[in-house]
Known about the structure:
Blueprint: H1 3-40, H2 46-67, H3 73-89, H4 96-122, H5 128-155, E1 165-168, E2 171-174, H6 176-187, H7 200-238
Antiparallel strand pairs: 1-2
Helix pairs in contact: 1-2, 1-5, 2-3, 3-4, 4-5, 5-6, 5-7
Amino acid sequence: xxxxxxxxxxxxxxxxxxxxxxxxxxxxxxxxxxxxxxxxxxxxxxxxxxxxxxxxxxxxxxxxxxxxxxxxxxxxxxxxxxxxxxxxxxxxxxxxxxxxxxxxxxxxxxxxxxxxxxxxxxxxxxxxxxxxxxxxxxxxxxxxxxxxxxxxxxxxxxxxxxxxxxxxxxxxxxxxxxxxxxxxxxxxxxxxxxxxxxxxxxxxxxxxxxxxxxxxxxxxxxxxxxxxxxxxxxxxxxx
Length: 239
């Protein structure tokens, strides 16, 4: 009915299709790595944790940065340095260097979440890739908070009711599994109560984590519903 308008509408979509198709696999890879880090890696023996988590985190850094390389080329370059820092820190003893490396990882995870959210907001419609971006960003934000929990537990004595560390070969090391477990239980406001914050710092951190989880869901749902509704309204006007 509207050949000129239809042609104008289709051409940008055709131009974007190769780009979206090329990045769809990367988004799926990011999501797979994140799920692997959260649900598969914790099943391995504790002795493997010191290598597997840094490896999986480095892969997440590189693949997530690659997926947003078009508009965030600086982020992709920075990911190389963060991946190297993560690898080096896995061989370092517990101390200020390892805590600093974890803080850098946290900041980089937050940057990746912001980049993914910007991709979601810039998308003209709700697609499978947009949904995967939203899920990946949600899980990455939870991992970022898990890292802050580790840092808080290592810097503050009696931070939590249960120490988030395990003894391996006579050396006490933070247990990332417990930190991620506590972070996601708080993040989703489940709150089983088996691990509770005891220090004012960790109590404030718990409030930040729980509020962030709720705000993320509210904001992303508003974005997705708004895009879907505007798309449907536009389609109705064109028919």
